[in-house]
Amino acid sequence: LQITNSLNLLVRTSSESETNIVSVERINEYAELNPEAPWEIPAKKPLPHWPTNGSIQINKLSMRYRENLQLVLKDVTVNVEDGEKVM
């Protein structure tokens, strides 16, 4: 009975240790991630005559990867308003 309890404690302790190590690995991965690009890049500003507002409208777009394949997009309608960021 005492050996069973000892083995149970050993398994539980090793499992908790592994969980803690994985947590530290995840934190390190997040800490080493490259930051996303900023919303605006000062060196890449649009030309002065570039429109300052506008929208994009796509109406009933259908596409396929190649001829004779099924449509992967069918009658897709999208409106992107001024200032919206599409991700």
TrEMBL record:
<protein>
    <submittedName>
        <fullName>Uncharacterized protein</fullName>
    </submittedName>
</protein>
<dbReference type="GO" id="GO:0042626">
    <property type="term" value="F:ATPase-coupled transmembrane transporter activity"/>
</dbReference>
<keyword id="KW-0547">Nucleotide-binding</keyword>
<keyword id="KW-0067">ATP-binding</keyword>
<dbReference type="InterPro" id="IPR050173">
    <property type="entry name" value="ABC_transporter_C-like"/>
</dbReference>
<dbReference type="GO" id="GO:0016020">
    <property type="term" value="C:membrane"/>
</dbReference>
<keyword id="KW-0677">Repeat</keyword>
<dbReference type="GO" id="GO:0012505">
    <property type="term" value="C:endomembrane system"/>
</dbReference>
<dbReference type="GO" id="GO:0005524">
    <property type="term" value="F:ATP binding"/>
</dbReference>
<dbReference type="InterPro" id="IPR027417">
    <property type="entry name" value="P-loop_NTPase"/>
</dbReference>
